[in-house]
Amino acid sequence: MEMEIVMKTAVKNQVDSIGGPGFSGSSGCELGSTVAVDAGESAIGGACVLSGARKEDCRSVVSYNIFMRGLFENAKVDEAISIWKLLPEKGCVGDSITYSVLIHGLCKNGYLNRVLWVLNEAEDKGDRLDISAYSSMINGLCREGQLDEVITMLDRMAKRGCKPNAHVCNTLINDY
């Protein structure tokens, strides 16, 4: 299935939020370019064509994170998960931001059971999750009215040295 994603201001905002303020995209890929993507095996690695930049220059965990985030925002959950599964094959290692993108996207699309699977996998591998991942999960559980699971998630956060931030506290106050 051929998908064309036009990355203009939205991608700039996503890069800023994923890569942090001032992220300049040192891979040589220009923001505001069009990406033609085949949703199969060649998702990013085989079809990353940005303003004439070499596709090899475009393969980084940041580009995969942006692509997965865009798929989740367009309710393409299975495609986003397939991109996540491609990371090791392409020599990319997901980071805490990758897990945050996955968890947020799955929660936003109503896949709380898959989120637990992702959380367990990350924790089993010894990967550290940031507050954003736990916050998304708590938000999703609150929206579903699952108070016991929210408390379990707060305990899980604390055991891993992750303290609730204002967003988590606001979610708890507003939803309960």
Automatic annotation (TrEMBL):
Cited InterPro entries: Mito_RNA-Proc/Resp, PPR_rpt, TPR-like_helical_dom_sf
GO molecular function annotations of the record: mRNA binding
The UniProt record lists the keyword Cell wall biogenesis/degradation: no
UniProt key word Nucleotide-binding: no
Cited Gene3D superfamilies: Tetratricopeptide repeat domain (1.25.40.10)
Keywords: Repeat
PPR repeat locations: 60-94, 95-129, 130-164
Entry-linked NCBIfam families: PPR (TIGR00756)
UniProt record similarity statement: Belongs to the PPR family. P subfamily.
Protein name stated in the entry: Pentatricopeptide repeat-containing protein
Species whose genome carries this gene: Nyssa sinensis
